[in-house]
Design brief:
The chain has 15 helices and 13 strands. The chain starts with 18 loop residues before the first helix and ends with a helix.
Length: 393
């Protein structure tokens, strides 16, 4: 088990007034050096998937195409997550700077910020920031222009290929993989898509160096992470913490003294009961002893007054509403799960029916087309297996 004391860090929201200097200095490096620095830092995508950022840029740079794109995924739709909104409000030039550097590295001349539809109130400020950034790029000879695109409120568009469809003016539905976005992305051209926070961390690496970022966190989970903390906590808000901390340390810091479970990663993540706090760490899966759970940022705490049946019922209602309906495992599966736990609770189905529903989530995990249908199993299985009695009585 990893023992890692919780440490609060302040890198993301530090002053960004030097963004022009960071951009100009970084552009003096050759493309391979920039990619090498990202890979040495071991920065992984902060949207939840955890793909190495440097490797993604490298793959896109190696593609032969006259048109390439950089897309910032700001479709922050995971329940309980609100960190990206704050980054775009407080330090937008960190995100824009990293987009510009990525554009130079992979050979892209156009970038997009895909903004969640519910964040329309951010558009005026962002447009002003983008205009200032584009003007500076032009003044230093960087052929790269950023545009703002507003989504329409669909949770599924947080999935990268569904986001491409939406960005192209189509219905937001996931594509089959492979091919992957670095080969066939926006408009079927090589595309790098990074989460808002990932780009903000890249700025930290460009400013302080790969060694600084690498020195934070633990093996396989380097650097810091922004956590959106909500629920039964006396200290809700956004905190930058090192990866690799134990969940017990997290609860000791942010719990209310009666925390019985923590939902890591929003509705699509895992619920961890009190008995597993000490053996669970927050980070990307590794070969080290213990259980490591990644998170896109959402950390919801529940105390003993909360019904886990109500929590799961709420998640399933969310999933069945947000399913795009494209594939049967997700479209039908979410409906069956939602109605199934209610039937057990009301006594219309016996307790063993929960095992049938667990088998259904396994099928969804294997056969659903995208991450939405595949991730329903995470919250369902972790809640049912750890709080079965609350599903019945």
């Amino acid at each position: 088990m990893i023992q890692h004391l919780l440490k609060r860090i302040d890198l993301i929201f530090k002053n960004e007034n030097d963004w022009k200097e960071i951009l100009s200095n970084t552009l003096k490096l050759d493309n391979q050096k920039i990619i090498s620095n990202l890979m040495l830092s071991e920065l992984k995508g902060r949207g939840g998937a955890g793909f190495p950022t440097g490797l993604k840029w490298k793959h896109a740079a190696e593609e032969k195409s006259g048109n390439k794109y950089v897309v910032c995924n700001a479709d922050e739709g995971e329940p309980g997550t609100f960190k990206d909104r704050e980054i775009l409000t407080e330090v937008p030039f960190k995100v824009l700077t990293s987009m510009g550097i990525c554009g130079r590295v992979i050979g892209a001349r156009t970038g997009f910020i895909y903004l969640r539809g519910e964040y329309k109130f951010l558009t005026r400020g962002l447009i002003n920031n983008i205009n200032e950034f584009n003007a500076y790029c032009k003044s230093i000879g960087l052929d790269f222009t950023v545009h703002l695109f507003l989504g329409s409120g669909a949770y599924i568009c947080g999935e990268e290929t569904a986001l491409f469809e939406s960005l192209e003016g189509k219905r937001g539905e996931p594509r089959n993989k492979p091919p992957f976005p670095t080969t066939v992305g926006f408009r079927n051209q090589p595309t790098v898509m990074n989460n808002v926070e990932t780009l903000a961390h890249a700025f930290t690496i460009f400013k302080y160096g790969a060694e600084k970022f690498y020195s934070l966190g633990v093996q396989y989970s380097r650097g810091t992470k922004l956590f959106s903390i909500s629920g039964d906590t006396p200290n809700p808000g956004i905190y930058e913490l090192e990866l690799g901390m134990s969940l017990q340390d997290f609860v000791d810091e942010f719990g209310d003294g009666d925390t019985k479970a923590v939902q890591i990663g929003g509705a699509s993540g895992f619920l961890v009961p009190r008995k597993k706090f000490k053996q669970t760490t927050i980070g990307f899966p590794s070969k080290l002893q213990g259980t490591s759970l990644p998170t896109g940022g959402s950390m919801m705490l529940f105390n003993s007054t909360r019904s886990m049946f109500n929590v799961l019922n709420n998640y399933l209602e969310f999933f069945r509403e947000e399913s795009c309906g494209q594939c049967t495992p997700c479209r039908v599966g979410c409906q069956v799960l939602y109605k199934g736990i209610d039937a057990v609770k009301r006594g219309e189905k016996n307790a063993q029916y929960l095992d049938t529903l667990l088998h259904l989530t396994e099928t969804m995990q294997l056969t659903a087309k995208c991450g939405l249908g595949q991730s329903v199993a995470n919250s369902f299985s972790s809640i049912v297996e750890n709080f079965r009695e609350e599903m019945i009585y």
